[in-house]
Specification:
There is one protein chain. By secondary structure, the protein is α/β, with parallel strands linked by helices. It has one domain: TIM Barrel (Alpha-Beta Barrel). The protein has 15 helices and 10 strands. The strands form 2 sheets. The protein has an 8-stranded parallel barrel. A two-stranded antiparallel sheet has the order 9-10. Helix 2 links the parallel strand 1 and strand 2. Helix 2 runs parallel beside helix 3, helix 2 runs parallel beside helix 12 and helix 6 runs parallel beside helix 7. The relative contact order is 0.14.
């Protein structure tokens, strides 16, 4: 089994490996990549280390819709361009459901072929949620990144995925403010640990598993039984809950740009931005803000959450300062706490 040297873990514990590596979403079309890299270089955003985009829906769906699905030749061209500018390329294939096709002989041969083509195209990393495919990727030299949709929320689960071959583990955003679990995961594994900092999903959302299963089917073209369109019950419920109770926006697992240092201090340097289905100018703004570790304004503007929320609420980032100190030790028993309710009253206003 491929393993990173044990000294990597020692360095993380000693807080030596604390330089941010920013992982940036990429919509998939070449022009977007060029714009992202142009801003990165023009503004000297040295933290930007990697971009990620969706793979082919003909092979596998993913947790998000694919706005542009580049063929292998375009992936090769974009990867070469990224490498010329010192940026790594990551292809995301994190469907949470393949209908069992991956376990058939035909499915095995298809994924083996596609991984081989990505490798020949020079791709640096592949992000997967399915454990079987994580293990299959060990046959190739590309970095294996475990998706946030593998729901790694404890040291034991992280160790299982490392044993399957993971080089990087993206932890469940539900534990972004559970520092005891994050520190436990960092100490339990030798691979790198990655966090998503600007996801705006509900904390402990009851719809999360079902919603991503729906997205996985809708974004796949290799499952004939999957619908091309379906009413998004989960999205509607998600919006309705936050409209009725804005405190849920405070409880989400987002991390302020100013608070990234708290995660570096426990050995987490891989900082990933969510939002590969967003407009490239929005992505660039988020990249700029997290690189500079500072933001003034409505935090909802840089969170990957439904756009209508930022048109209805103003969540003042400057008034959220200090919240991380409470959340680092919070027991997350919300009905006995009330901290987020009080913070909502102070930091969140409704647009009239």
């Amino acid at each position: 089994m491929r393993q990173r040297l044990k000294w990597c873990q020692i360095l993380r514990v000693r807080n030596i490996r604390n330089k941010m590596r920013l992982i940036v979403p990429h919509p998939g079309h070449f022009e977007a990549l060029k714009e992202i890299i142009a801003v990165k270089e023009a503004e000297g955003l040295k933290e930007v280390d990697e971009v990620f985009m969706g793979g082919s829906p003909d092979v596998m769906g993913s947790g998000r819709g694919v706005l542009h699905a580049p063929l292998i030749e375009e992936i090769r061209e974009q990867t070469e361009y990224a490498h010329q500018h010192g940026i790594k390329m990551n292809v995301v294939m994190n469907s949470t459901c393949t209908g069992g096709h991956h376990l058939t002989f035909e499915g095995y041969k298809m994924f083996e072929w596609y991984f081989g083509e990505l490798n020949k195209a020079g791709v640096d990393a592949v992000t997967m949620a399915e454990p079987y495919l994580v293990e299959l990727l060990r046959e190739f030299p590309m970095k294996i990144v475990v998706s946030v949709l593998s729901y790694v929320d404890a040291p034991q689960r992280a160790k299982f995925f490392e044993d399957l071959g993971a080089d990087v583990i993206t932890v469940d955003t539900n534990i972004n403010r559970h520092f005891d679990l994050l520190e436990g995961i960092v100490k339990a594994v030798n691979c790198d640990v990655r966090i998503i900092v600007n996801e705006g999903c509900l904390y402990k959302c009851p719809f999360r598993y079902s919603h991503y299963n729906l997205a996985s089917h809708l974004s796949s073209l290799n499952q004939p039984q999957s619908p091309l369109f379906a009413p998004d019950y989960y999205f509607d419920k998600c919006i309705a809950i936050r409209l009725r109770n804005p405190t849920q926006m405070i409880k989400s697992g987002w991390i302020r740009p100013e608070d990234v240092k708290e995660y570096e201090a426990i050995g987490i340097a891989d900082i990933k931005l969510s939002g590969r289905t967003k407009a490239v100018n929005w992505i660039i703004n988020c990249m700029r803000v997290y690189s500079k570790r500072s933001y003034e304004g409505n935090l909802l503007e840089i969170l990957d959450c439904p756009q209508m929320l930022r048109h209805m609420f103003y969540m003042a980032n400057e008034k959220l300062a200090g919240g991380i100190e409470h959340w680092k030790s919070c027991k997350k028993v919300c009905n006995e706490c009330g901290y987020c309710d009080a913070l909502t009253k102070d930091a969140v206003t409704i647009f009239k």
